[in-house]
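Appendix B: a complete holo record

For completeness, this appendix reproduces one full record from the ligand-bound portion of the collection. The bound molecule is flavin-adenine dinucleotide. The inputs are the chain sequence and the ligand SMILES; the output is the full three-dimensional arrangement of the complex, encoded as structure tokens. No fields have been trimmed.
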Amino acid sequence: VVGLSIAWELANRGVQVDLFEGQAGTPSASWAGAGMIAPVPTRRPADAWGAFRAASLNLHATWAERLHAETGIDTGYRRCGGIDVAIDAADVDRLNQRRPLWEAEGIEAEWLTPAQARQLEPELTGDICGAYLFPGRAQLRNPWHLRALAEASRRRGVRIHSGISVEALEPDGARVASVRTTKGRWACGTLVVAAGPWTERLLAPLGVEAPTPPLRGQIALVRWDAPRLLRIVECGPRYLVPRDDGRVLIGSTEEWAGYDPRPTTAGIAELLAFALRLCPGLGQATLERAWAALRPASRDGLPYIGRVTPFDNLLLAAGHRRTGVQLAPATAVLVADLVTGTQPTWEPTLFGLDRPAVPINLAFDS
Ligand SMILES: Cc1cc2nc3c(=O)[nH]c(=O)nc-3n(C[C@H](O)[C@H](O)[C@H](O)COP(=O)(O)OP(=O)(O)OC[C@H]3O[C@@H](n4cnc5c(N)ncnc54)[C@H](O)[C@@H]3O)c2cc1C
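The structure of the chain with flavin-adenine dinucleotide bound, as generated:
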């Protein structure tokens, strides 16, 4: 999603783009993810990171409209709302601790008793001790969003080379002169590496250390006969994301499992147990499919976006961990600013590889 978003943004600014997308057949995190979009802050963010994040969340509504207008493809972007449930006192504390962050960002959040939560979502018959309602939570359907981005990019002249992997970046002095691919060598003008968790492997031979360790996430997809949940239901890192057609995504795990993208029985069993605890009625749903994919993590939880020294024509955009879909629009704008020599909309040093470690406070993890 990061590479395609950058390609589309660059093409919109008149830049000729060739996009190499290797490893066809393996689900990327961008295809596999749940497509949750955090509520858009309504107050002016306190810092540059907050401003970047807020702008990205805000851009999603516009991008969904533009993609639909340009391609006729519905990305599934919906402001469906969300409920963050607490199943014990520790959860209540965890949610209440975040309350000041939501207030500072001007995010509408309303505490619900279990009875109030069930009034909104009658299927939440499991053992919950309270919940917060977020009317501003949204979702999109990842495969639809990717299809729309690819189609819109092609229409703007982007050449998408699917199934062609980049094997090596070939430097010549202070430039990356070419890339060696599985289908031959390509000369580069400017090169943007947005290869998810594989980014570190591409950059290491150039002496560039950009850790993007793969953080596996699993998902189970079930189907009800009709939509019976309206809102996203979250509890810590686990969630239920209901689609309009009765399907429900049950996610997700966080595992350091190397580059192994396969779901496991233990991972899926844990997710199903979580779902049934909150929503026993899901026991009647049909299990359609399960999958896993590798999120690109980073050193400190923030993505790396920007120029890669000492190369004049090399940029990277990777390491978005659990928020790559949400942050892709602003990432694309920032990279396109840097590629076209426009005054960057946000301060890129925040996302540089050599940034100092900063503690980040996330109002929402995903
Ligand atoms: C289960 C799960 C749920 C998630 N839910 C959410 C969510 O609700 N909201 C959210 O914002 N984020 C979510 N995420 C995180 C989000 O999906 C990722 O942060 C995001 O997809 C990362 O995008 P990316 O483009 O950087 O990486 P990827 O999706 O990994 O894409 C990288 C691409 O580069 C290609 N590539 C790699 N190496 C090469 C090479 N050498 N040559 C050519 N091509 C190459 C790969 O084939 C791939 O297509 C979730 C992730 C998972 C796994």
